Amino acid sequence: MMTHAILSAIGPDRPGLVEEVSQYIFQRGGNIEDSRMVNLRGQFAMMVLLGADESAMRKLQGDLATLEKSSGLRPELRPAGAARVGEGADARPFRLVATAMDQAGLVHRVSNLLRKFDVNIENLETRLAAAPYTGAPVFEMDMTLSIPRKTQLAELRGQLGGLCDQLNIDWQLTAV
To answer: 3-class DSSP state for residue 114?
Structure first.
């Protein structure tokens, strides 16, 4: 029977980490199904959804110290629940892209508003970039959202627009 787990690992970045971790998983009978990996200012962070039979999952869990020693990453393996049948059927996918002069609390303020509308943030990427000409830090945010079908999009857009005006955020919400 196939089981699933989430492998997360963080540590100093260097060439070869993805190969080493994927080899570790493959050699123990696991399969990478979904993943997110990123270098954040010299620290490598990964989250990987693994599929494996129960025996392979025990090997993966039991050998984490080997992975830590060989890679320099701090790994953790946690069971993942089964995919829910019909997941997302009562929601529509959207993408929210926002740009603003950097200021503390932008992610919190936007995510707080989305929470009030029961919107699920499926994916979130943020980064600081230099503004053209001035070089001032510009905050960029890209979200993949699941908006419940019951949500009044006009009301959500109106409140999101009001918040973004207040925070001087340029934004765009589009159906995916």
So the answer is: helix
Q: Name the residue with tokens 């699933």.
A: 4
Hey, what are 65's tokens? 């110290």
Please give the CATH architecture assigned to the domain spanning 2-79.
Answer: 2-Layer Sandwich (3.30)
The CATH classification number of 91-175 equals 3.30.70.260
Q: What tens digit of pLDDT does each residue of 128-171 get?
A: 999 888 888 899 999 999 999 999 999 999 999 999 999 999 99
Give the pair of three-digit tokens for residue 111: 């995510």
Identify the helix (H) or strand (E) that includes residue 175. strand 170-175
pTM for the whole structure: 0.81
**Are 37 and 19 a contacting pair, CB within 8 Å?**
no
